Description:
By secondary structure, the chain is mostly helical. It has a domain of 119 residues. Helices cover 73% and strands 0% of the residues. The chain has ten helices and no strands. The radius of gyration is 61 Å and the shape is elongated. The N and C termini lie far apart (201 Å). The C terminus is likely disordered.
Amino acid sequence: xxxDRPAPALIDLPHEVRHRVHVLAAxxxxxxxxxxxxxxxxxxxxPARRAxxxxxxxxxxxxxxxxxxxxxGVQVAGSLPQPVEDLMDxxxxxSPVIAAAVAWLCRPDGxxxxxxxxxxxxxxxxxxxxxxxxxxxxxxxxxxxxxxxDLRARHRDEVAVLKAENxxxxxxxxxxxxxxxxxxxxxxxxDVPRARRAVEVLMxxxxxxxxxxRAASSTLTARAALRWAPRRSAPPRNSGPAGSx
Length: 245
């Protein structure tokens, strides 16, 4: 495969490959000569912070400036714990993410073939992950739908019970409204004769109490009349003939 094929831009690579390129570049950023202005301040940060805060600036600079990318690639190749060719090996057990990042950044002979193979491997893995994720989401959706159906069934049963209770209460209320008033006062019917007798006794006592003064007054009047009656009806005493001494 020809080496003069156009290389893909970093911005177009999968997210995990871009992130690995940022991590590799951030490790060596202070040792790279002629840093672009947006990266000079970032170079003083810790490596993890450089990769996080300088990701956008590094992507722009690496895509726009081939010389800068070459300088970064040289520093990265010298800092790796293994030779570049070993990290680009896609044998079983190798990481296609690391292989793609190292190939794009260091660009040894055959790097484009390795990059394409690594990206194809990542696409296959992504397809498999997408299928697994789709199955998981499908199962979750089916479980949620069944839970909704069960909940609706329980609600229908609860509504039916509440409607039956409401109908029963309405019947009881209608029966209570239609009941004769006697049913309401019947518990007090036995007290009516007793109350009537009490009223009669009370009225009798009031009559006696009011008649007693009149009777006493009549008695006193009669006694007074009897006491004075002899005096008014007795003849005057005769003093006798004169000279009866």
